[in-house]
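re the bet — no i am not wrong, look at it urself. input seq straight from the record:
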Amino acid sequence: MTRHVRLRELLIGVEGLALLRRLYDGTDDEAEQRIGEVRRILDDEAFARGEATGEADARAGYERWSSSYDEPGNPLIAIEQPVVWRLLESIEPGYALDLACGTGRHAGRLVELGHRVVGVDLTPQMLRKAQLNVPQASFLEGDLRAIPLPGGELDLVVCGLALAHVADLHGAMAELARVVRPGGIAILSVLHPFLAHLGWHAPFEDEHGRRRFVREHAHDHAAYLDAFRRAGLRVRDCVEPRLGVEQLRAKRRAFRHAPEATIAAYDGLPGALVWSVERGG
């Protein structure tokens, strides 16, 4: 599916969210600044031009994204990775899976911590990069909904920023639980559902510079808790790292044209949701 997304739509949405968040605590001057910017955006025809933006499924999307995926500036990775790595530090080395491993950023950290590591990903292009980045690990092509490993053998699973791409959360969680041994641990990170409800997805430019995205489903906390319960997984911890100004600078189009509104709209909002869960005996 492709539609023409207008910069006007994005900027007015950001201005509106900024107004709502400061509705009771902001000043009249701040509100007038936001409204003045809305008028300026509506009057400027340059903001009315649309840009074709196409949705891609996870396999095709990450295949096209693979050439630029490791470039710096991803705001979600910036807040997610330190939390995931901190949670990993307290886990004894064992047999670990980096599920939906991408180019191997979590696999590399698992190797450093002394784990025997296998990575699984849908996309051959990502796997080739992962093997170069982390030669100490082994990698397999596979879907997180059908993991190509025997059941009950893994001490640890890490799944970074992938589960929200899946519509059927229960099926994905049951498959994840299948491969973990009793007492084994899973560290799972996703785009925060609040941001998914605000229309955030996984955006990228393909090899031709065209804007595309992979959909993020807005599974809320209750949906995750229900999926964990059905899969026999117990919650050990839940962390919600928040967006700051440095991450918001990566929202290049919004920040370039309305920096104060972008900060007022998003600063301090939870950007990621990181779960630590354990499989029951």
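see?? The chain has a mean pLDDT of 95. told u. also The chain has one domain: 2-279. so pay up
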